[in-house]
Design goal:
The chain has 176 residues and is an all-alpha fold. It contains 5 helices and no strands.
Length: 176
């Protein structure tokens, strides 16, 4: 478990920026050593994506789509305050996982398939089910896949620059 200040130090960002990220992504705040490894891994993903030039607005769009998809699949079996982050430390089936939440869809992403009918929660929290309200898991998945593909393309374009910059910094001496 981690404290707020520990996470800021480990992420190499100010506590002000960490607090801003929490608010922007609507993440719960905890006292003391209340932050899990999964919470830290999620924040590391956000900071890594910024390093690669993925805007915070794009990250937020991905985040909202992932949360919506997880809600439609009823992925909150334990009603945890961090249910949307709890998979961040999982390592099995990496090609089946969403980018930010690391939630396992059961099929490779970006394949346009989904095991429908999954319900990890016994009761729907709303009066009407998602489809009756116009929400469709496949529609959200397709939106996610489109945005994920754009992010992936941007990452592939930026990776050679980051590798070159890393080599250059290593030659400065005393910097590791």
């Amino acid at each position: 478990m981690h404290s707020f200040s520990d996470m800021a130090r480990l992420l190499n960002i100010s506590t002000v920026n960490l607090s801003r990220l929490q608010k922007r992504f609507e993440l719960p705040a905890f006292d003391g050593q209340g932050y899990s490894d999964a919470y830290l891994v999620f924040l590391r993903k956000l900071t890594a994506l910024r390093t690669f030039g993925v805007t915070e607005d794009t990250q937020l769009k991905l985040w909202l789509l992932e949360k919506k998809l997880m809600q439609l699949l009823h992925a909150d079996p334990f009603h945890s305050p961090t249910w949307f982050l709890d998979c961040c430390t999982a390592t099995s089936h990496p090609k089946q996982r969403l980018l930010l939440t690391n939630y396992d869809l059961g099929a490779p992403v970006p394949a346009k398939e989904l095991q429908l009918g999954l319900n990890f929660n016994e009761t729907a929290p709303e009066l009407f089910g998602g489809q009756e309200m116009g929400e469709d898991a496949l529609r959200v998945l397709n939106q996610y896949i489109s945005l994920f593909a754009a992010v992936r393309s941007d990452l592939e374009k930026e990776l050679p620059q980051v590798r070159t910059a890393t080599k250059w910094v290593a030659h400065l001496g005393g910097v590791s």
